[in-house]
Design goal:
The structure is a homodimer. In chain A, 23% of the residues lie in helices and 31% in strands. In chain A, a hairpin with a 2-residue loop joins strand 19 and strand 20. Chain A is α+β, with helices and mostly antiparallel strands. In chain A, the strands form 7 sheets. In chain A, strands 1, 2, 3, 4, 6, 7, 8, 9, 10 and 11 form a 10-stranded mixed sheet that branches. Chain A has a 6-stranded antiparallel sheet with strand order 19-20-21-28-23-26. In chain A, strands 13-15-17-18 form a 4-stranded mixed sheet, covered by helices on one side. The mean pLDDT of chain A is 94. The interface between A and B is large, with 58 and 58 residues. Strand 16 of chain A pairs parallel with strand 18 of chain B.
Chain lengths: 464, 464
């Protein structure tokens, strides 16, 4: 069995914890594993690493790769040159499997949902496998636990075998009244976007119902290359797999599943899945409450205090704070969209940015200067690089740094410092066990991440 | 006429903007002047700088002096060695005036209230002056605008001359029911803690009703010295002037005053005095709202976003965030007290600390290191100092630094850096027009502000 993990997705509804460049699947909320990592581990329990293909888009590639590399030796990861919807991502991924000679049953899963009961999930997958082998396309319908308006629904009333149902119809996100009706009716299931099919069956179905996508998909040849070409992929329409294929397919069945699934689509969902104290509060990080109830306090850095709050979501990050009434969490997207419109950076990135070698945090920024704390993991190594518009000054806080500057090597201990002039090739590495922390002071008129010319990189970030 | 400004006070109810070491009177909320500065300017409009005496306590002395020095050439400032209540502060201040041969009318004002209509205040002061000259003690009763439970009241029903009333009784903070009753009755006024009397009359009244305080007060001799001695002051009881004197005095009259007074005793008071948008929101700093009403959003550094909030106070500072239901702002003190109890530094100081030469901001702290941004004003000069437990490393971000290190002088331009070893005498100055900004990296096992030995200081912080 093969697995396709859809690791695209955006970061608007869980802002300010999620960002455009740090979407939901990468988040670790009160856990040591991200949703993406948990998804990958869930598949690793079913099949082997070499049978799991993840697909993300270029802007998330580095972060997705870093996370997957923390649990898999050599995770297969495709990168979409532009962000499209699920139909192109799944089609290209299936083509990849077929080109690699892997025409077997494929399980497609989103990477930004939570599943609490992995055992039940695995059992359902085992059942579905039989149906997929009989050339059915299987969708996994979730038994609704509330009249949700935020999900699409699957209507399926007639049995198809022992544990599956025929799919009558896919239903779009309903209004409150319709959702209440669906909830009372046992024939309606949430559409979780989890599918299973034989690769060749999917491709035939695609050919039949979405010939445009099929044609473009055929242009890719993964036999000789593993990269998705921009010129071809850009011709793809931006359309979901539901619209493009599933809603039209005839050979589709529903395997109902009750596995504690939640798409964590908004802050109130995050509140719901967490353990509450006796006042109904969820508190994560450094928090303090006085007379609060049914509220959610999340601190990533600073002290967050609530007084007399009721049904309030309060989220603190390094550069943005959100306070939101619990029944208005869908409107967080509006704030995100406004920030994007006015080009406020808080929609885009965090002040702490993860890299394959560790992370950096922007501490302070002013006219002509920028200061960062750079943390290099044991055996981490920044690329050999130079900058056209900035000089840098490094002071070691803890650990030991191996610095290459203009072809000379230096070992810097805590308290030592070094100047990196403009345009001079340099590199920072940590060949030791202890984590390395340095303060970097950048000076220059143009202080942007993009001012970086890479010459050598152990993480493959230099194109040949 | 003389003025005594009471500049003690604590920082619990407006936390996290106020701190134990940065109390309410020092705050500039949506204004360019602090409450203390506005109080001083209000008195400067009535009398001369040399007739205004301010009294604060040792822990606030430096900040109070820095603020007063920004508006007065040589402000007279007494410092209480320990924090007592208002009776000792006023008694010692009056003794100071008498010792300096200044037995005239004295106006006593708190420094942490707001008065919107300075003209009406000045008019009332002029009227009161006549009464004070006739040996009355004058209190200024504020005409209530709401049934406040947070203030003490003055009951005064019978006329005493054209514009004053006899004081029947001082009333403690009432419960809601009693406050409603007071509010309907035109004989009740808020006690604003503003008084006026002849210095010698006060001292006689003190002798009569608070002989213990009077005796200790007489031990001070400001003819030869201007410092308050700890050994004497520490014997003072901690008691308010109302309890000690005013409630007992017979020669006390009330001059009602309607001058837009507010003691800004809690966050809802701050909300009330600020201009609202059409949804009833007050927004200060970088804020964004989506469907909020009657709420208060305050950002000092980071973006603060509110979604669907109603009657919520949201305050952001560098190291602590507060969200509070508007009718629960009195309970902010409980959070403050808890933080103090668990020795959480956020009750005590801000990450940005003001100094006579400028300010510094703690950017980052970790095991064995601490990084600050230090900003030195034009012509600012840090003391000549050394540290027993830390080395320092300075990188100039902008402006130019004059550094003295081990008796040698250096001029550092942006991008340059210098190492300050443990125990070596050093000093940092900015003799230029442009503000100087540097990054300081401290290294050592014991990184506390107290590890500073001063040898020379242009602000008088070195004791002879």
């Amino acid at each position: 069995m093969y697995g396709i993990i859809l690791a695209g997705g955006s970061g608007s509804r869980l802002w300010p914890l999620s960002r455009e460049l740090y979407p939901k699947q990468l988040l670790k909320i009160n856990t040591d594993k991200s949703l993406l990592e948990m998804t990958y581990l869930r598949l690793l329990d079913i099949t082997d690493e070499k049978n799991i293909l993840s697909i993300t888009n270029a802007k998330h590639f580095s972060d997705v790769k870093t996370q997957l590399s923390s649990i898999a030796k050599d995770p297969i990861l495709l990168s979409e040159p532009t962000q499209k919807n699920t139909a192109p991502a799944i089609s290209v991924s299936v083509k990849y499997l077929l080109d690699k000679g892997k025409d077997d049953v494929v399980l497609v899963v989103p990477s930004d949902h939570i599943i609490k009961d992995n055992k039940k999930f695995k059992e359902a997958v085992e059942k579905a496998k039989k149906l997929a082998k009989e050339d059915f396309i299987v969708t996994f319908g979730i038994k609704p636990t509330a009249p949700e308006t935020g999900y699409g629904y699957i209507k399926s009333s007639k049995k198809a075998g022992d544990f599956a149902f025929k799919v009558d119809e896919f239903k779009e996100k309903p209004d409150a009244k319709t959702a209440a009706k669906y909830f009372k009716n046992k024939n309606y299931f949430w559409n979780a976007g989890i599918f299973m099919f034989k690769a060749s069956v999917f491709m035939e179905t695609l050919k039949q119902f979405a010939p445009e996508i099929y044609e473009i998909t055929q242009e890719f040849n993964f036999k000789k290359d593993s990269a998705i070409e921009f010129t071809k992929f850009d011709k793809m329409p931006s359309i979901s797999i539901d619209y493009a294929v599933m809603e039209k397919a005839k050979n589709i069945v529903n395997v109902p599943i009750d596995c504690g699934w939640n798409d964590l689509g908004s802050w109130d969902a995050i509140y719901e899945i967490n353990k509450k104290d006796k006042e109904g509060n969820v508190k994560i990080g450094t928090t303090m409450t006085e007379g609060c109830k049914n509220s959610f306090l999340y601190s990533s850095n600073r002290l967050v205090a609530g007084v007399g709050l009721d049904d309030i979501i309060l989220v603190e990050t390094s550069d943005a704070i959100l306070a939101c009434k619990k029944d208005k969490t869908q409107d967080v997207k509006k704030v995100f969209d406004k920030l994007k419109e006015i080009k406020d950076e808080t929609h885009l990135v965090h002040t702490t940015v993860y890299r394959p070698w560790g992370y950096y945090t922007v501490l302070n920024q002013g006219d002509g200067y920028l200061t960062k704390m750079i943390c290099v993991s044991s055996h981490g190594q920044l690329s050999l690089q130079s900058h056209n518009f900035r000089s840098e000054h490094w002071v070691v806080l803890s650990g030991c740094a191996r610095v290459t500057l203009d072809n000379k090597n230096y070992i810097l201990k805590p308290g030592s410092s070094i100047d990196i002039p403009v345009k001079v090739k340099h590199s920072l590495g940590n060949p030791y066990k202890e984590e390395l922390k340095i303060i970097e002071v950048q000076k220059g008129d143009k202080l942007v991440e993009e001012d970086i010319i890479r010459y050598k990189d152990i993480y493959g970030r230099v194109k040949a």
